[in-house]
Write a structure and sequence with these properties.
The complex is a heterodimer of chains A (374) and B (289).
Chain A: E1 2-13, E2 16-27, E3 31-35, H1 42-50, E4 57-62, E5 65-66, E6 77-80, H2 92-102, H3 107-121, H4 136-149, E7 154-158, H5 166-183, E8 186-191, H6 194-200, E9 203-208, E10 211-216, H7 218-223, H8 228-233, E11 240-246, E12 253-256, E13 261-263, E14 275-280, E15 285-287, E16 293-302, E17 307-313, E18 316-322, E19 333-338, E20 344-347, H9 357-373
Parallel strand pairs in A: 3-8, 3-9, 6-7, 7-8
Antiparallel strand pairs in A: 1-2, 1-4, 4-5, 9-10, 11-12, 11-14, 12-13, 14-20, 15-19, 16-17, 16-19, 17-18
Helix pairs in contact in A: 2-3, 2-4, 3-4
Chain B: H1 2-35, E1 38-39, E2 47-48, H2 52-58, H3 61-94, H4 97-112, H5 115-125, H6 134-141, H7 151-179, H8 183-191, H9 196-207, H10 209-224, H11 228-233, H12 239-242, H13 245-255, H14 259-288
Antiparallel strand pairs in B: 1-2
Helix pairs in contact in B: 2-14, 3-7, 3-10, 3-13, 4-7, 7-10, 8-9, 10-14, 13-14
The chains are: A alpha+beta (374), B mainly alpha (289).
Chain lengths: 374, 289
């Protein structure tokens, strides 16, 4: 049975509908990440699940039970807030044990549970401190400890890492993931950071403007973005999108508006002349003397592990991420080909995905081999 | 170097204040203490009296009554007003937008009225002949009572009017305190399983304790030196039985021209305010930790 289900859930303020008919389910023990740009409604959705925000349409179910009219305190949910929301007048041990104290758990039991959570999170030595005496990372842990102590049916995280510095963020990311593997508790995590979504999620729920754009496993979404928007949001640097038209002729190909012809694999249903947007991830482009794309290098950004080339291709910006350091210079022209991965096709108007990519990589590469061999 | 310059700038900026503070406050305070050691009219040298005035104070029946009245007034106003202000603030905090502003304005309006107007309003409302609240008084007491002409009801009456007139300011302070509690903190408590009462007891109340201490201290000090409202309500009444400490000073200094003794009573008030404030502050601070 899915642990959390959203069925046609909506939210409106008076006549203004900010969320319409959202439906998805999260399985027991899954780590789900709600991701999207600021204002897409992901935090609101989380708060609706927590009972902090009213649900104006549809139904939310936890373990099969509709919770729409259940007050927050009775939903058996623990939440870690972006600001941590620790009780400033309570010591760490009181912060963590507060929920148990409210439930009138015996003192010994509270001490035991708090102690166990503190050991898991490495907070043993900080139990007597007040939140103001802790660093950001330590507060973050206390907030997690407070959630952990309760062993709730669902853990919620609302951008818990965004107030930490970059290094700590990466470290906490791993720790959180590790913790989840250990506890196996159903977790819903909200973030605007696609890296967090990709690295942590079992399942990503991609949102925009109060609607769900795509739900899927991270690599599924990376490999088969449902539309232009998802393609641009997931992956860094963002996917290149070049406008073009399906070329008439025997071999399916796209004539790019900026010049150049990009051969495609088998694309049966697209009428010649149809306007499309071609998506190619920067990390899938490679220099190739026979490549169909002619680009001029504008800026070179070496990150050490890879070299990002910010180029221009027929008037369109084009990012190229190369694993080698090469010897590139501004003003240089490069021929590029999408070697390492699929070419994505999106409808120019609706921006929806048009093809399954696997066939295209396959056939494109086969094409290349044939040309080379022949 | 810059530190020395900072000091110089600070001194120049503070100078006007320091000058006025010295001339209008520090000097008169010292002079008051000196005056309390003399038998002298308000203006004029008089003669040295040593501790005579303080000896007189110890046996002064009117001083005792005025002290009792003042402390009684503080006891009637400060706690009640603080609790009421907190309740009102929590109510107002639940409202949103223009409604909140409107309700808040209603509570704050009396605070902006001149004391003389407050006096007239309640003098009329509670008038034995035509006061619109007199039927309520009659219903409670069994007969019509002239609140401000009865010694036993005088202070409670004035205290009631004072709370009515000044509670708005405390509401404002509490509201600011409530707003400084992050919404997420309350939400976290709700998710932790706190209902309304537990939320108030374990989160809201401890977090606004500093504001409560502030409100109580402000009221303690301002009500210990109560004068105008008491003076207005006991005009042509039994002043001896109902006057406050500051009113006693006023009478001694400006109606009986007994400057030396008036200064002595004033010193006594100063000591009383200082002792009670420090005591209360310490008490509240220990509670807050």
């Amino acid at each position: 049975m899915p642990q959390v289900e959203f069925e046609k859930v909506g939210k409106s303020f008076g006549a203004l509908a900010v969320m319409r008919e959202l439906s998805f389910r999260i399985e027991d023990g899954e780590f789900a990440v709600l991701v999207g740009p600021s204002g897409c409604g992901k935090s609101t959705l989380l708060r609706m699940l927590a009972g902090l925000e009213e649900i104006t349409a549809g139904e939310i179910r936890i373990a099969g039970r509709a919770v729409n009219d259940l007050p927050a305190k009775d939903r058996d949910i623990a939440m870690v807030f972006q600001s941590y929301a620790l009780y400033p007048h309570m010591r760490v041990v009181e912060n963590m044990g507060f929920s148990l104290r409210l439930r009138r758990a015996p003192k010994a039991a509270i001490a035991e549970r708090v102690g166990a959570a503190a050991r898991t999170l490495g907070l043993d030595r900080l139990l007597e401190r007040y939140p103001r005496e802790l660093s950001g990372g330590q507060r973050q842990r206390v907030a997690m400890g407070r959630a952990l102590v309760r062993s709730p049916s669902v853990f919620l995280f609302d951008e818990p890492l965004s107030n930490l510095d970059a290094k700590l963020r990466v470290q906490m990311r791993t720790e959180l993931r590790h913790l989840h593997q250990k506890l196996g508790a159903t977790t819903i995590y909200v973030t605007h950071d696609q890296v967090e979504a990709m690295t942590m999620a079992d399942r990503i729920v991609m949102m925009r403007d109060g609607a769900i754009e795509q739900v899927g496993r991270p690599l599924e979404i990376y490999d088969r973005p449902a539309n232009h928007f998802v393609a641009g949001f997931i992956g860094s640097p963002a996917m290149n999108v070049l406008p073009g038209r399906i070329r008439a002729g025997a071999d399916p190909a796209v004539a790019l508006d900026g010049g150049g012809v990009l051969p495609l694999g088998h694309v049966p249903s697209l009428a010649p002349g149809r306007a499309v947007a071609v998506g190619i991830r920067p990390e899938h482009l490679r220099p190739d003397p026979d490549g169909p794309l002619l680009a001029e290098v504008e800026v070179i950004e070496p990150t050490g592990a890879e070299t990002d080339l910010s180029c221009r291709c027929g008037g369109q910006p084009l990012m190229v991420a190369l694993r080698d350091r090469g010897s590139y210079r501004p003003g240089q022209t490069l021929r590029l080909a999408p070697h390492a991965g699929p070419v994505h096709l999106f409808d120019a108007e609706t921006s929806a995905r048009l093809t399954h990519p696997e066939s295209m990589i396959q056939e494109y590469d086969d094409d290349r081999h044939e040309t080379r061999n022949g | 170097m810059t530190r020395r310059r900072d000091m110089a700038v600070a001194f120049i900026l503070l100078l006007p204040f320091l000058a006025i503070y010295g001339v209008a406050f520090v000097y008169p305070t010292i002079d008051m203490v000196v005056l309390s050691l003399r038998k002298a009219p308000l203006i004029g040298a008089g003669e040295w009296a040593g501790l005579d005035n303080y000896v007189r104070l110890a046996g002064d029946r009117l001083f005792r009554i005025a002290t009792r009245n003042t402390l009684w007034f503080v006891a009637l106003t400060a706690p009640a007003s603080t609790v009421l202000a907190l309740l009102l603030a929590m109510g107002v905090a639940r409202l949103r937008g223009w409604l909140q502003a409107a309700v808040l304005a209603c509570f704050f309006l009396p605070f902006m009225l001149p004391v003389s107007v407050v006096y007239l309003i309640w003098h009329w409302i509670l008038d034995t002949h035509f006061g619109i609240a007199q039927p309520i008084v009659a219903a409670v007491a069994g007969r019509s009572v002239s609140i401000f002409r009865t010694v036993s009801t005088f202070m409670p009456g004035v205290a009631f009017v004072t709370v009515w007139a000044t509670v708005g300011f405390s509401v404002l302070l509490f509201l600011a305190g409530l707003r400084s509690i992050p919404q997420e903190t309350s939400e976290a408590a709700r998710l932790d399983g706190a209902g309304r009462i537990a939320l108030f007891r374990h989160v809201t109340w401890p977090l606004i304790w500093p504001v409560t201490a502030l409100v109580l201290t402000i009221q303690l000090i301002s009500h210990l030196k109560v004068f105008d409202i008491v003076y207005l309500f006991n005009l042509r009444g039994r002043v001896d039985e109902t006057m406050s400490l500051v009113q006693y000073v006023f009478r001694l200094a400006f109606q009986q021209n007994d400057g030396g003794y008036a200064a002595t009573v004033a010193v006594a008030i100063l000591v009383l305010v200082a002792v009670l404030s420090v005591l209360q502050f310490q008490l509240l601070r220990s509670r807050g930790q």
